[in-house]
Amino acid sequence: MAQMLALYKTAELAAQSTEALDGAGVTNEEWDVLTDAPYPEGAFGEKDPEHKLYVFPFMGACIGFTLAMIETIGTQTAYPLVTGGKPIFSMPAMTIIAYELTMLGAIIATVLGILFESRIPNPFAGIYDERITEGYIGITIICEEGKIESLETLLKANGAEDIIIEK
Amino acid sequence: MLRRRHTISSTHHSHPPVVPANEFVADFMAWHTKPKPSLNKAIIAFGLLTSLGLIGILIKLFTVGLENRSDWGYLAAITAFLLSTAGCTPFVVLGLRMIKAHWRRPIARIAESYSLVTVVTFSFILLLLFLIPSSQNRRTIWFQNDHVGTVGAIPFTPHLYVIIGILAMVLAGLGLWWTSLRPDIRLVNNLKKADKPTNKSWVGSLKQWRVQNKGLAFLGAFFFMTFIWAITLYCIDLCMSLVPGWRDAIFPVYQTLSGIQGGLATVILSMYVLRRFGGFEKYIFMEHFWAASKPLLATCLLWFYFWFCAFIIFWYGRMPIEQDLLQLIMFGPYNIAFYIAFSCCFLLPFLILLWNTVRKTVWGPPVASALIIVGCFFDKLRLYVSSYSVQDDLALHAITEIPATILPNITDILIIMGGFSLPIFIMLLCTRLFPIMSVWEMTEGLRLTKMTKFLRTELRVLGKPE
Amino acid sequence: MQERVFLPNKQINDDLLKGSFETPWWYLAWMALFAALTAWGVFAFGYAINKGLGVTGLNRPIMWGFFLTDFIFWVGISHAGVMLSAILRLAKAEWRRPATRAAELLTVLSLMVSALHPIFHLGRPWRFYWPFPYDFSRGIWPDVRSPLVWDPHAIFTYLIGSTLFVIIALIPDIAVLRDKTKGVAKVFYGALAMGWRGTPRQWKIQIVAGFLLSGLLLPVFVSVHSIVAWDFAVNIGTEGWHVTIFAPYFVIGAVHSGVSGVVTMLILLKWMFKWDDYIRQEHLESLAKLLIVIATVWFYFFFLEFIFALYNLEDQEIALRELQAFTWPYNLIAFVFLFFGYLIPVPLWLFRRVRRNWVAMFITSIMVNIGMWCERFLIIVPGLARKTNFNFSWGSYTPSWVEISIVVACFSLIFLLIMTFAKVFPLIPLFDIKEGQTLSDEIQIGKRTVPALRVEE
């Protein structure tokens, strides 16, 4: 298997290329787009990425809430200090600590989820070129070595400025 | 199960079709001018229910009179409810106009039309003012007592200033409604080819549009200020100051926020009714409800926040005055009303609106809104009925006795029914008599919208002339 | 939107990464000054640890002075980030783009600095970790019913959340730096970029993450300053503190000072780095309009707080307000607070010419923060000065050189850290600016071309 990276100066040429790739039978799983800024979903005809990021905040919130209950109930049971006539297990005070730790758990879990769903850190992420961050649009293709030549011709015909191949 | 046509899945990029402006005008005017027998029947039905409410007030007036404040707690509650729901809808649409939210356009007229409800509400407030003593030698924001003497004396407090404050809000709301309506009245008359148009002066010149926009901005700012002041005066002078020892600086803010929440809920429900029964699916779609659901969720959270701010201060200090107050308005004779209010204003709508999948439906936000309307009523009930039931001398430093629960009698039930029916009656009547959608605002929005191809996808483009 | 400029992506990279690749003389001069002031503050703190808190102006009954005032001030400034980044991101306001990272950075740094202040005014600062439940053997645990325990929970939640927010949003820009640098810098940025390539999946997660984290941080931001307010408001012993409106009053005051702080920062960035194409008058005008609304709401809350303080007509409360309004030096501070915080800037902001004037906005934004600092001082010190009923235990407060040095050092530390950050990372998010360009469009209506926005639903 080989990896190809075609670089385009404009988004229009890149979109034209992806259309040509679809026409040539190259599936969405085989090609991908690299950009230096977000584009509207489907702008290059790519498959809408599915993710389960929304699950992470809930998991984190549950963990945070549990920790908060352990802290508030545990500390007050271990050292029952009556202050200001308030009950030992004071719901309003427990609510505040529970709220903070729930949110903290949700935020940390969300960040972990972001890293996981973005598939980073990944030092072996795949073919890349530094010109992407200068504004070039990159189209990566995973293909069999026998198809490299035909794909190269197709991409050049649709405006690719440079093509990098890694076998 | 969610009905597919009401949801947008993450893999489906469907945008509602952009209707050309002149097609919308033709569509809408055809709808507006066609006979609507079911609408007429609904107007009659809700009109009768509203009249029952007014009859309830009259019966109460002639049987118990204005001697005892505790007999009128439910009227005070329903008045506060009306101020916090229908009375606040212009405020909601003003805010949306200020931030240039396009989704306000289909519901702007309905929201402004509800300002007609405040005319009736004003008459209720005039009646209630007979039950409120002068602010002399009791704790109020007017500080009229022997300390102040003649130098700081302000005559006729609080009555005159409550009247001025509420009246200013009513007039600002009516002004907004009429200013927005003018171009569409002319349009309706032109299309009907009426012999005597009621608004001959409007011709739609550039100058008239500029003046109209400036007028809406000015009246909007005026309404914004008068509304907040009106709510502040109403909740302090006709509620808080009637309970000795009740000092709650956040109460006016809490009531204002409750109004914004109620107003937004009213707007969302009206939007749903217009879509469902008016047949406006082409112009009111899921995106409108989705956009409205976010501020609604925010208001639910803020409701809890403002309530908690007051609660934690009273609860924490353990002062007898404050503990008694918590009993009176939350955990004592009106605890059930409080729990319903808490559930319906915060807990249940929060749990519903938390899910993006539910927010992205046509039914989700209206369900939450309906709960909020119910919650709003019970919230006002527990605040106003309880405060009106206090029998202590208002010059005292604290309440001496927590009064028992006052349940509604038959006149109170009629008043409550009338109070709920009044905004619905007004909205239906406005639908019958005036264009219920702001035609000029809709056409402005449609002209600023187009669908365009972007690379390999299609996107909606919204013009931002500002 | 009317003033938008379309620039090639390469130029955006070069312009906004100028700070990382160039070191003008003024940068080193200012860094040296801020480092010196910070070092002096560290010395002053060390002196206070060595000699005890008696070297400060704190004494019975005024045990909370400059340090607590500054603490609340910096927590207030930290509210800028969430206001501008989170709320405007959720509202999809296009004009937020140049301001988000600066605002988020200000949040993180000001929170770090604010967390130092309770340590400064502890008699035994080496025991600062006692509010945390960490030890089984001492037999005593922190009282979770106390706002002084709620405080660290809230501040650290907000600090951790905001820091993570900044880091996540930085990743795409770190990738740009990775691609533009060589040698050790490349290895450094490469490690931080974690293999970012810019695939549609990664961008989608980045955008969803922005909304998710914004939505999660918003309630936290409200709770943090509310809990700080409850440090005062739950107290029934001190006049002027036990009011229900303190929490939202503090929050809205924090937003007021925070957004003003961001305005100051943006104008300084524009002047220093010559980012005229990125920080434009339309951004300034939008911020000014937002400030008018925030300031007016704040003033309404202040009015309610004042009115309800006098509501019960208690002698002690009236005496406190007379002290604040009419007695030297508090009367001067009250004058500065009212006029600088609202009565001068807001009427000026009503004029379009002022809103679009860089110098005027710079001066008024600084005035607001001076006014808000004075407001916090007025809340804390006069109430404590007359705390008890016995006038033989009334006191006055004069800050010593130690407190002044530490407060000045904290301001210097913030500037030092911002300038250090500007050297290492871009202060305006590159991808945000590029995305704004991608989503820009136009609509033709008659003879007029109206700027438009492509909307993704």
* Greatest contact between two chains: A-C, 63 and 63 residues
Q: Write the CATH homologous superfamily of chain C.
A: Formate dehydrogenase/DMSO reductase domain
How would you sum up the global shape of chain C? globular
CATH T-level fold name of chain C:
Formate dehydrogenase/DMSO reductase fold
Into which percentage range does the β-strand content of chain C fall? under 5%
Residue runs with pLDDT of under 50 for 5 or more positions of chain C? none
Q: Give average pLDDT of chain B, whole number.
A: 90
Q: Work out the oligomeric state of the chains in this entry.
A: heterotrimer
Instruction: Encode the helix/strand succession of chain B as letters.
Output: HHHHHHHHHHHHHHHHEE
Largest sheet of chain C: 2 strands, antiparallel
Q: What's the helical proportion of residues of chain C? A: 55-70%
What topology, given as strand order, has the largest sheet of chain C?
1-2
User: Structural class of the helix and strand makeup of chain B?
Assistant: mainly alpha
Rg for CA atoms of chain B: 24 Å
Tell me about this structure.
The complex is a heterotrimer of chains A (167), B (466) and C (457). In chain A, 44% of the residues lie in helices and 14% in strands. Chain A is built from four helices and four strands. Chain A has helices at 11-23, 55-78, 91-117, 148-157; strands at residues 2-8, 31-34, 137-143, 162-166. Chain A has a four-stranded antiparallel β-sheet with strand order 2-3-1-4, covered by helices on one side. In chain A, helix 2 (55-78) runs antiparallel to helix 3 (91-117). The radius of gyration of chain A is 26 Å and the shape is rod-shaped. With 466 residues, chain B is mainly α. Chain B has helices at residues 21-33, 37-63, 73-84, 89-98, 108-113, 117-128, 159-192, 206-237, 251-278, 286-317, 320-331, 335-353, 356-359, 364-389, 410-433, 439-447, and strands spanning 449-454, 457-463. In chain B, helix 3 packs antiparallel against helix 14 (364-389). The longest helix of chain B is centred in the middle third of the chain and has 34 residues, at 159-192. Residues 1-13 of chain B have low confidence and may be disordered. The radius of gyration of chain C is 23 Å and the shape is globular. Chain C starts with 8 loop residues before the first helix and ends with a strand. The model of chain C has no long low-confidence stretch (mean pLDDT 92). In chain C, helix 4 (66-77) packs across helix 16 (358-385), helix 5 crosses helix 10 and helix 6 (100-120) packs across helix 7 (147-180). Chain C has a single domain (9-453), classed as Formate dehydrogenase/DMSO reductase fold, CATH 1.20.1630.10. Chain C has helices spanning 9-16, 18-21, 25-51, 66-77, 79-90, 100-120, 147-180, 183-193, 200-233, 246-273, 281-310, 315-326, 330-343, 345-349, 352-355, 358-385, 401-424, 430-438; strands at 440-445, 448-455. Chain C has a two-stranded antiparallel sheet with strand order 1-2. Chain C has 18 helices and two strands. Chain C is mainly alpha-helical. Classes of the chains: A alpha+beta (167), B mainly alpha (466), C mainly alpha (457). Chain A binds chain B through residues 11-12, 15, 18-19, 39-45, 48, 50, 54, 84-86, 92, and chain B through 10-11, 13, 308, 311-312, 315-318, 356, 454-457, 459.
